[in-house]
Every structure is written in structure tokens, then in C-alpha cells.
Amino acid sequence: MALEREYDFWLLDLDGTLVDVEWSYTREVFDQVGDRLGREFTDQEADILWNGLTGSRDRQLEEWGVDPTAFWEAFHEEEDPLVRAEQTYLHEDAAFVADLEVPVGLVTHCQEFLCEPVLDAVGIRDWFDARLCCTEETGWKPDPEPVQSVMADLGVAHNGHRGVLAGDGANDVGAAWNAGIDAIHVERVGHERRGQCVLGDYRVRSFDELS
């Protein structure tokens, strides 16, 4: 990949960037969460929340009159790590990450109890030299703290190294820029479905375009 030579390190998001899950799994989880909360989620609402199409999921939930804390408690209780891992697939164009010869880190909102089985199921655990699953303690993208934490783990913080973060959402781009590195936005769902365009230093529909 031509861009590899431009950067001293790479950071990547996970869900929607490197991997995705079958829609049937997403639909089932939202049905179960809806039963818990006494509130049905339409296909469009499930799509918006799962893919973060409107940015902050918590803000979107509040706009719909759903308490974010109650939603996430129900959501994580209903997610089965092994089932999710079985229904997760790796995007073919993500294969370039395995060949990167610079430090590589993972910065994801996917919770650790879900992330670990997914990494094993799709066989990409050894792609990363450092990983961080965001929590309330670490902060959430677009805050720069999670990105800066992984940069520190990689030994590339505050020493002039040039890096990039690739992700599928506006929060990924914001986190990269807030941390002072470049951003690649890979648009997996299309701006028509998203309802807006996400700007980045690079905007692609597939990582193959970067070559």
C-alpha cells in the first residue's frame, strides 16, 4: 500500500472498519433489547445505532426518548460474545493491515468481552501491537485520550512520529484530528444512507483505493 510509506504508525477502528456482523444478528439483538425496554426499534433505528450513522449514539437515544444507560445495560446483557463472533466477517480489503511493517494499534468502542472473541474468530489478533477497548474510564472517540493511550503503548507519542487512524465514522476522524494525527474515513454504508458526508484526510469506500 502506497500510504504505508507515509506513516510511522497506523491505528484502526474495528466494527464497520475491519469487520462487520450479519444483519440478522443485529436485528435479533435489537428485538431483545426492545423487549427489555418496552420499546420497539425499527430497522432504520437499529441501523443508525449499530453503525453510529448520526455520530453520538447516546445523543441519538436521548432524542428518541430512550435512556442511554438503560439501553446500554440491556444491549450488553443481550449480546452473546460467541454468537457475535460466529456471525462476524472480515472485510477483504482490510487484509493490507497484516502486511504493515510499522506499529499498528486498535482503538475500538467494541467492549472487551465482545472484542476478544471477534479477534480470534476472524484471525486478526496478531495484527495489532497494542489494543484498547474504550470505556468510561478511557474516554470515547472523538475524545483524543483513547488514541493517545494507544500511541503511548506503541511508543510513538510526542516524538515526531507521523501516524494515521482509519475508521468508518465521524467519531474516528474527530479522534484522529483531536490527537494530532491524520484520518482515513472508509465509508462502508454510503453517504446516502448515512445522510451526510464525513470528511477526512482521505475518503474512500474501500481500503483498496488507497493503493
UniProtKB/TrEMBL annotation:
InterPro entries: HAD-like_hydrolase_sf, HAD-like_sf, HAD_sf. It comes from the Archaea. One of its GO terms (molecular function) is phosphoglycolate phosphatase activity. SUPFAM superfamilies: HAD-like. Transmembrane segments: none annotated. GO terms for biological process: DNA repair. Pfam families: Hydrolase. This is Haloacid dehalogenase. It comes from Natrinema altunense (strain JCM 12890 / CGMCC 1.3731 / AJ2).
